[in-house]
Structure formats: structure tokens, C-alpha cells
Design brief:
Length: about 325
């Protein structure tokens, strides 16, 4: 019941009790039991008790009504949560989304994450191995927050398709695109494996930095990227008993036993891992499935050879990387 209606009804009841009380005390027109002195006394006492209770209830309701009205006025005057006040700025755009991992160039004038991926030595190395990207069409898998995308565009790429499956990361990419004025990059939200499976034209270069080790089936991804370009760059973690022996805390994410898969005439070892709930964080930048597989470094290289990518260069090999051994690969298709 609305507070105003409840208050009105209580006020009406108080008036009726007051009239009854006067009627009983005067004795006018009262017959039967109400004419008895003891009945008059009981009714008078009862009326007074009820009256006091109803008055207290009315006071409480009045305070509630007044408080609700004040609160309502305050809410009407307050800025709604989804709106930004003050001078429009780059920082407002960054603050609209939580969980940033990458930093932005200084000239943007906004604080986001920590990693300076807009000037990543790994991408510089990959472009050095590839050669000029002037006029090239590039596919970027998992741009995260568009730091590498910015570097690719600055290097002269004519077309960049950047496919991100994480919804928050995709939105952060759009913010970066606006803040950095990217013109040649198109960001797409969805599963890049489906995109690769349905491509009609190849890319000059595919960049797959930080995605292979998040896949449920990393071998399938290797098949897809080598099918759709003659030049690829990978940065990935890998499994290694030598670099990450039993008891190493970096092995804690591994679950179950190692799978030995027969694949295109070779044996490949797949190490299942779990994120163990890390995906609950707004800054999570893993894959779309909790269970995913790491490969050993030698198996990755062997798989590339089987796929006719024999011109292979390796760099940035970090067995002691805090999240697990990692390295970079630039590879081209061999002569057929």
C-alpha cells in the first residue's frame, strides 16, 4: 500500500475512534452494554490505547513519506551512474571500462594498464623478419587492447582485421581506436577460428601473439593460420619439463595427464590446463574455454614443418617467464 494512502486511512480511523470515545463518555443514545459503567470504562481505555498506537503509526508513516520525498528529490538531482560529468577527456573514455592491461602512448594523456604493447619489441622483430608491410593485408588474432594493432598501422599496413572474442576487450579496442585515431584497422567481435575456416582470400601476414596456448585444440589453429597466409608470427607459452620441472608453481594450472596425439604422421604432446577461476576478473585475457592445451616447443616447430612452413626463425625464448616458458616464431611457407 502506498505510504500516503496508509497515512490517510490511519487518520480516518483516528477520527472514528475519537467520535466513538465522545459518544461513549456522554452516554447519549447509548443502550444495552454501552450504558453500563464498567463497559464504558473498558471501551474508553481501549479507545485510548488504540488511539495512541494509531498516532504513533501515523507519525512513522509521515516521517517515511517525508523521507521518501526528500530521497526522491535527491535522486532526481543526482547524476545517473551510467553518465560521465565534467570536461570530455581521454581518461573518461578509459574509465568507462574496467580491467585494462595495456598502457597507452604518452601523447594520449590517459592512464590505462601497465604493459607498453604499443611499442612491443616482439612485433618490431616480426616486422623486421617479414619486411615492409606497406600496402599489406594483415590478420591479427586476439588484439586484446589494440596495442599491437596501433604498431601495425604505424608501420604502414593498408588493412588490418583484428578479431577479439572477449567482449570487454573488444570494447576496449574500440576506445583505443578512437583515442589513437586508427584508420586502417577494423575490429571484429567473435571466434577467429570460425573466421579462418570461412576465408575466401588469404592474408599477407597473420599475427597470433598470445593465443595458441589458450586454445582447446592448438593444432587446429596452426592448420588454419598456415592455410590462410604464407607468413605467420606466433608468440606463445610452451610446456617444458626441463624449464618447468615437477614442483615448479607454474605447473599448478596443469590438470590430468599428458595427451599423446597422433597427428599427420607425428606424435604431439598436449598438456591440459585450467584457469582456475581467473576468468572472473574484468582484466582476464585468456581463452573462451576453461580447459585449454599447451604444446612443447619442439612439437610446435615440428607441426610447422609438417605444414610446410620450413623457413622458421626463433626469438625471445624465455624459459623463466613468470607465467611459463615462452618464445616467438616467425615462419614462412617453404618452396613447393
Amino acid at each position: 500500500m502506498p505510504l500516503n494512502l496508509a497515512k490517510s486511512r490511519l487518520t480516518g480511523w483516528l477520527r472514528q475512534i475519537h467520535r466513538l470515545n465522545q459518544h461513549t463518555d456522554s452516554g447519549s443514545g447509548t443502550k444495552s452494554m454501552l450504558q453500563r459503567p464498567e463497559t464504558n470504562g473498558v471501551l474508553s481505555s481501549l479507545a485510548r490505547l488504540v488511539t495512541r498506537g494509531l498516532r504513533k503509526a501515523a507519525d512513522v508513516i509521515e516521517r517515511k513519506v517525508d523521507g521518501s520525498a526528500a530521497s526522491s528529490r535527491h535522486k532526481r538531482d543526482a547524476v545517473l551512474d551510467e553518465y560521465s560529468t565534467g570536461m570530455p577527456s581521454a581518461q573518461n573514455a578509459v574509465d568507462a571500462l574496467r580491467g585494462w592491461n595495456h598502457a597507452l602512448p604518452d601523447h594520449v594523456g590517459a592512464t590505462a594498464g601497465r604493459g607498453a604493447f604499443y611499442n612491443d619489441a616482439r612485433i618490431h622483430w616480426a616486422l623486421e623478419k617479414f619486411g615492409s608491410v606497406e600496402g599489406c593485408k594483415i590478420l591479427e588474432l586476439g588484439p586484446l587492447e589494440a596495442g599491437h594493432t596501433y604498431l601495425l598501422e604505424r608501420s604502414g599496413a593498408a588493412v588490418i582485421h583484428s578479431i577479439e572474442a572477449n567482449k570487454l576487450s573488444f570494447l576496449r579496442c574500440l576506445v583505443v581506436k578512437e583515442l589513437l585515431g586508427l584508420q586502417n584497422a577494423r575490429f571484429l567481435l567473435g571466434d577467429f577460428t570460425v573466421w579462418l575456416e570461412n576465408l575466401q582470400e588469404p592474408y599477407d601476414l597473420i599475427i597470433a601473439s598470445g593465443v595458441l596456448y589458450h586454445m582447446q585444440d592448438p593444432l587446429h589453429l596452426l592448420e588454419l593460420i598456415t592455410k590462410n597466409s604464407d607468413a605467420i608470427y606466433l608468440w606463445t607459452h610452451y610446456a617444458s619439463d626441463a624449464a618447468m620441472p615437477m614442483g615448479d608453481p607454474r605447473r599448478q594450472a596443469f590438470v590430468g595427464s599428458v595427451e599423446i596425439r597422433e597427428w599427420r604422421g607425428i606424435k604431439v604432446r598436449l598438456y591440459k590446463r585450467s584457469y582456475h577461476g581467473a576468468w572472473r576478473s574484468k582484466s582476464f585475457c585468456g581463452g573462451m574455454h576453461d580447459l585449454h592445451c599447451w604444446m612443447e616447443k619442439d612439437d610446435i616447430l615440428a607441426a610447422l614443418h609438417v605444414l610446410n612452413f620450413s623457413d622458421i626463425h626463433i626469438a625471445h625464448d624465455e624459459p623463466a617467464h613468470p607465467n611459463g616458458p615462452s618464445f616467438s616464431i616467425f615462419a614462412r611457407r617453404g618452396e613447393t
